[in-house]
Structures
1.
Amino acid sequence: MTSYPLLEVDGLRVALQRRGTAPTLLDGLSFAVAAGQCLGIVGESGCGKSLTLRATMGLLPAGVERTGGQIRLSHQADAAPTAVPAGQAAGRGLAMVFQDSHASLDPTTRVGAFVTDIVRRRTGASRAAARRRAVELLAAVGVPDPALRFHSYPHELSGGMRQRVAIALALATDPRVLLCDEPTTALDVTLQAEILLLLDAARAERGLGMVFVSHDIAVIRQIADVVAVMYAGQIIEAGPVADVLDRPRHPYTRALIDAVPTLEGPIGRFRPIAGAPARPGRLHPLLPLQGSLRPPGRGLLGRRARHRRARRRAPIGLHPLLLRPLAQRPLALRPRAGGHMSALIRVHSLVVDHPVRAGFLRRRRLRAVDGVDLELGRGEILGLVGESGCGKSTLARAIVGLATPTAGGVLLDGAPVPRRRPPGMRRRIQMIYQDPGSSLDPRRTVSQTLAEPLRRTVPAEKIAHRARELLEMVGLGERQAHALPRELSGGQRQRVAIARALAVEPEVLVADEAVAALDASVAGAVLNLLSDLRERLGLSVLFISHDLATVRGLCDRVAVMYLGSIVEEGPVARVFARPGHPYTRVLLDAVPSRDRRRSGTAGPGPGGLGGVGGVGRLGGEPPSPLDVPPGCRFHPRCPRAAARCGTSEPSEERRDGQRVWCHFAWRHEL
Amino acid sequence: MTTPPPLLDSAVPVGSRAGRAFGWRRPAALALPALAVLAALLAPLLAPADPAQLTLDQLRPPSAAHLLGTDALGRDVLSRLLFALRTDLLLMVFAAGLPMLLGTLIGAVAGYRGGVLDAALRWAADIFQALPVYVLLIAFVFVLGPGTSSLLVAFSVLGWVVYARIIRTEVRRVRERDYVSAGYLLGLSHTAVLFRHVLPNALRQSLVYLATDMGMALQGIAVLSFFGLGVKAGTPELGTMVAEAQVFLRSHWWLAAFPGLTIVILGSSIAALGDRLGDRGESG
């Protein structure tokens, strides 16, 4: 073993180069990575995590430059690291895996050719030898049938498979240090566990140094040995994972950890960090941290933007804001787990097909939702979980009336809804979307957005007042009322989207991955808001998410969906404590823990990630809804599958308000 | 290099090469059309003489009395040029604006509704775009008879296709945004959603094209008028002026040169304005 670190970053400073000024984005970062070691970097969006990797790699975006510090890289074993000049790509020895595998692969090149090309450039091997090496690499990263996949284009591969190819590509350069920029963020938990295992194995086998950037503390906990916490372009705390995450010394680290929901421990409110993060270079990042963690009301809007608007518009006097229920509707009682209540929405044997093109002039029907029965009670929060592509979103769109059922239907308050819903009926069920960048009309200010739905029910002179009330209800103020969506943060935009939905006084909110694009802290605040609105207004919420820890913290009941069908449904506490379906078990096992490494972990150090995936690792990826397996649709991937699973469809089994569709319900624990 | 960048030296140009290039292109592309519009608006005040006034001072070269000379009927060329700008700019606005209006409506409805309507639009657009525009333009005006109204009809019938295509693509992109379905769920009708939320966010590309198209329309009008298919005889118009000057091309250069140059410079600077808008759209 060498005594030198592979990569040393010393006092790295990066600044935005703008006319006259040079705002600092990274302020004196120092870290080192040894062979076989993984450094995790955590922090919220905008703290400079990804920029750190780009600066190390020498791939800074235009207009951003390294203004100080040294990056030293050891090119050979047992050699002292040498400095990499600023403004030059580090090249040999470093490789990077990006979050978006779509963007990191060339869409017009077959993946095999791409890997072969990199191998040839690096080693100068003959075409045949490089091909063999490329196939080996694809096999090593777990691409099934590598010789066959060799000829695939990136778009023909699933997200998980593309990320594997991207890793093969990075390994093809035979790097000493692998830089990973949120490589699992865009993936389902099951795939995330697989990719983490793969990266950890690569590190152990090749003695790679690794820098792993993530906003997800649980992921860092699973893969890193050493962790650095970033805030506003600085490292504010660093050390061995166990020390920093178990006994954080900096209050920000503590708050960051607390904001992450978990599958363990008591269920309570989410614990977001107050205020908004300071922007690098705008404020001295450590000053506000000493007092209340964050500057009050700062960073919500750029200072300049606020001044500009203040000039443009005369100030509007603040009315005394009184919070009151939206409608004179009796508040529903919070439902007890397993208790019976009147169903507000009843979905019965719902089938939704999408027509898809399958070759020339051939059309097939893709069955996105296949015979779903589901009930949503008044004042209830129902979670709907499942991997991407399982039909969650289509089910949601059918419930709100954006997708037309092929068979079956939706009952609202006991009455069937027509195919084309009249406006009044549409308003009773509102939707909150995933992408905060797309849920608001970019040309309208917040108050204009809120005024539009109010115009039908509220007299003109009261609209402004009501809009302010709505904003207040979602925790926004006068300052945001005249902002355009692009001037708001993601969390603020989601709040506006919720306020807009509340403007028509709905009975049901359907939240489709509504917090998936937000930082844990910001998400926590939005989730608390949803929970409060349910209490105050008696709203029912259908909460669709792939994040099981969030569902556990928010929902009363949960339904697990697989390939268009519900496989398990019941009260959250029961389902999470004692899942009846093997798929639920597998999903739960795949969730990385915030507070500990998964059981079976050999402890920190190279190769110590044996436990990710736990009891039942999923084989392969979900089959396509175009090609549903016979019998139990989960059986090809099921760790418990027996012969009859492949032939007969399981029937419903009930126990204590929990419903499970499995031949081996509750009998999968081996 | 670890030397800090010069912070106070504002003379050092910072920014992209393109940004610096626009430094001169923007004023030029903006100033010329603005100047032309101003001149057209103020033509009655600026013109030294009545553009229709016949005199015996025929075919005089540029001089202090007649800055751009006089034509075969003794009319002041500068005055005619100024009034011709009025005709041409007004025609230009309609010759590009009417097709845009038509194309936007068709493209927006087809793009938003999709299905058969959308397929029909694509089919029609393919056919229209395969046809030779100028030949058809001339054929149309022949059939309808010369004059401004047939000119505008011809431009609209042939010009809507491109707008419909651009708008359709943009509408289909915007339609997928969440605020569109949110608007529908809030109780707006599809028509209201289309006109309030979809169309305003889909117009940008076609506005850029509109500017380019205006430059083309200006030249197109001049060409048709040159062939005698445009405005009523006697009306001051740039293309007609060039046509009338044809016989004197060798002996009396100013008759063709000034209206000709005006067409070329104005047409291309308006088109450049469109390019400039397009570039800005791309850079965000």
2.
Amino acid sequence: MGPLPERITIQMSNALSHLSPEKIAEIELHSKKAHRSKRWHDFLEMVGNHSILIALSVIFFMPLYLVIVISLMNKGQAETRSIWPSPFMWSNYVEVFTLVPFLKWTLNTLFVSVMGTIGVVVSSVPPAYVLSRLQWKGRNTTFIIILGTMMLPGQVTMIPVYIIFSKLHWIPSFLPLIVPTFFSSAFSIFLLRQFFTSIPDEISDAARIDGCSEFKLMMRIVVPLAKPAIAAIALFAFLGSWNDFFGPLLYLVENEDLWTLGIGLNAFQGIHHVQTNMLMTASALFMAPVIIIFFFSQKVFIEGVTLTGVKG
Amino acid sequence: MQLTNVMASFSPRKRGEGALAPARRKLKVPYIFIFLCMSPWLFGILFFTAYPMVTSFYQAFTKFNLIDKPEWVGLENFNRMLFEDTDFWLSLKNTVWLAAISIPLRIAFAMFTAWVLTKPKRGSSIYRTIFFLPSMVPAVAASMVFTYIFNPAYGPINRGLEAVGVNEPPFWFMDPKWSKWGLIILGLWGIGDTMIIYLAGLLDVPKSLYEAASIEGASPWQSFRFITLPMMTPVIFFSFVTGVIGSFQYFTQAYVASGQVNDYSHAMYFYATHIYFTAFRAYEMGYASALAWVLLVITLICTLIILKTQKRWVHYPNGSLFK
């Protein structure tokens, strides 16, 4: 082991010995030049990449910027072409609550979203658990059916489901939006299953030998280990309800007291004829929770999307 | 001697086949537990999928207004769809047009944004956040904002276009020729979630392939064409399938935007919109069910065609998902 590096050095010095000192200096200069031009090239590439990225960022961010800026303008200025509020109308954010029942819409949306999230989490963890952690007959068939229902267009079941709810006299009410979430979501089962499968079987085996019941095993061992995945489905479920428009359009429109932000915002113009600045104020408030949630949970989101290839 | 046997049975090498496997086999399958756990899904699929599908299939052959009993009319609904209902053809045409333009554009744009994100050595996470953010925005709010941005009188898009010398910029949502482009741009703005999948795909391509290619003297375009693109085909395939399914359910953005601008020429009238108006404005539940089933058949055929072609162009490094 020892003599090897020494030998190599000797060989190298032998190889260089027939070169004149000028030649060696020239080689060194060349390699320095090459090094410098590589650094120059890398620098140019970095500048190029970042300018493309900055340009794209401006495009992606511009609509959000406009919402904020216009939401702070007065009515007259919002319908000009200016892109900076003068004067700043912070009062818009107070006025919007008196102009339309904004607080009520927010609370309705929040209620539907929170209940929907609870429903999805509570009803999707157990199926995902038995689909990934236990061996049983028909397991794969069941999983394929679940994947199939994910692809099924909602329009095919929409009308009979609407009729069921109308026969139960649940229209208009929050029930048609909340109750189905307690019957599992195929997407959430799929996401959780992907994650549960990655937890080593040895953990369960050890607990089973110690006499742990399956239910305890699920609640005490697997669920705590799968917190990131559960957080991801909870987030997707919450956002799904918060951003939902079609469900509330079917089931809530008839009763103004039940309107959610989506429905309310869409009807905004009908209630008070075009007030662009107020419309943007309301939009900004509608988006704000989603964006705040995103900043606090970016990692969970991106892992969730990557794990399944889809968003809720 | 005995001690070593005991030790050996606990050694990790033997764990699988030796000591623990019989114990695992002895455990009974807890079928009651499995049934209880699956029951939310099971009842869900019975009440909210299986029963409605059967009912809606039956209703597709009836005249049904939600109040009176469904009246059997045979193939009348399908006859009406094909030969009488001009709105059906209009909505189908609009939907196919939107899908044909927006799916390839979305794939290309998602690929491009993801690809530029893999480039910088530092700071890519801040760009990723900015690119992803719009996909979080509620569809209603996004559509509102875009009808403002595209407003011909005071919207910033036309202001920008005029600034760069476009004399008569389009009226966007107010012009039937341009309104669908407005929706396409709105869709591209919310590309973030698709982009993340592409980004994950790009980061999965082994670096050694690019190194080998650069040693062989491949140009950047060649390494994109012969390494990146083949390795990304599963992701492209996936977004193609979900894109087709999604186009036929495209509703909220078009509904909100057309409500904002009074879409008199029905340029933003899509298939899902047609089903909604037939069912919940005209209360023609039977005919709407027929429309929904045609939608299902069209999506199924499209998906099957894409599945059939995948052998020719989709490259699975670790074996196919659908064998």
